[in-house]
Predict the 3D structure of the following.
Amino acid sequence: MAFDGVTIASIIKELNDTLPGGRIYKIAQPETDELLLTVKVNGGQKRLFLSAGASLPLIYLTENNKPSPMTAPSFCMLLRKHLQNARITGITQPGLERIVQIEMEHLNELGDLCRKKLMVEIMGKHSNIIFTNEENVIIDSIKHISGMVSSVREVLPGRPYFIPETQEKEDPLTVGREAFIHTVHGKTMPVHKALYGTYTGISPVLSQEICYRAGLDGDYSTASLGEGHLNRLADAFFSVMEQVKNGNFQPNIIYENNAPAEFAALRLTMYGDCERRDFDSVSALLEQYYAQKNAVTRIRQKSVDLRRIVQTALERNTKKYELQLRQMKDTEKREKYRIYGELLNTYGYSAEPGAKSLTAWNYYTDEEITIPLDPTMTPSENAKKYFEKYNKLKRTNEALSALTLEVKAEISHLESVSASLDIALAEEDLVQIKEELTESGYIRRKGGAKKAKITSRPFHYISSDGYHIYIGKNNYQNEELTFKFASGNDWWFHAKGMPGSHVIVKSEGKELPDRTFEEAAKLAAYYSKAKEQEKAEIDYTEKKNVKKPNGSKPGFVIYHTNYSMTIEPDISGLQPVRE
């Protein structure tokens, strides 16, 4: 999963086929490290998404818009001031560096033509979006890097912009064949490491692909390569570089076990029988590959506080529950004290004064039993003491029985909230979860604050046979789907014995085909804590068989008439409906 220099080259080609001559119509900054540029081109408009996120730096064309903050950040305002209606004149990449240089021209307040550059650096945690003038002086950047942070290069207004040469790698597009063979053979390391460690823009995945095309094991040492091996390696290397120079890209994603495992801008042939999906556009590939990953990363950052609240409450309730179970176990000996008291009332007359024990016949078990005695007390007083112990433990057991049920229900509720946080995809999904935690007393509502406006909606799928399937994202949605939205003959699915979403299939009074049952069960498994398991057991029944106990937590239900199936949590063949 490498966003390497070759991938950047394929993006450059796509952008150059589309954007030059276009004018920047809108500039938005949806997140602190993201930009969304809307460019008017012949025949319509294009959106260019730029991200300098440390975990997911990206650049691609997209059809999708993103909501922006009410007040634009200062970097966004600066770009609007300079680049509103600016014309894109060129998009380039220095060598195979992970850098995109967007050149633009615009008229200033005096009507003079000015040229500016937007430097997009896709370099992991060092990623940045830097705005410079024609002389490569930094006007501003989406991230400021001072000398305290980096001794290599400051990224601050007024500083000169340059590409730091920290790795001393060579440009693979300009190297000659003899120099390539000499350089690679002179390194004592695995062949694939020699490739990506020597040349810019080549990822470990691409270097392994080059070795595979050459018929070599990438883990072999370069010192073990003979002349024939080196020539085959050079042939494969320069064939790949020729593809890059000619813009002959073939974006593709490799799937393993129905999950995307790898992608590249050139066709990956080393994965044998694995499923491969080809794309006409590298932007389409990147958007599909990273969209969900990016959303999950963002939402996890935004849900940190909620997760901490839930985790703290879970730990506290789990400790309380374990303590209560130990106390419950201690009350199990209460029957022994009751029997001691009854036997002392029956046989106590035979105990000698001052005796420390009494051996009597236990008519409950038909065997002898030895009862400890307090020698300072009479047998009847000892019996009374044992009855008092019994009654105390009985009261404790009754109280704990109710308390453990309450705490267990609270643990189940918190686990379900945790599962809801795991499947949340957008900030509006978190709003409803936060409201649930507030109403449950885990978050204090600020004085005068109104109840949050809920805009989150359940997931919506359509089965292969055309039946509508709805999945709750949290406990409130689960309850609404099951008891307000679903009809009696609709079908209800849920992962057995674990937190997960309620899944409703609208039957429309018809008998569901087996395939729809299986697809709904897969969705129930996927949207539950069983998602990472190979298989999950799913309970399903008609909605009319599902009941909610009085006073139970949101989303908690009971049912006694149901079917079950075991199925894989694989929904790769299903796509949600965009509402």
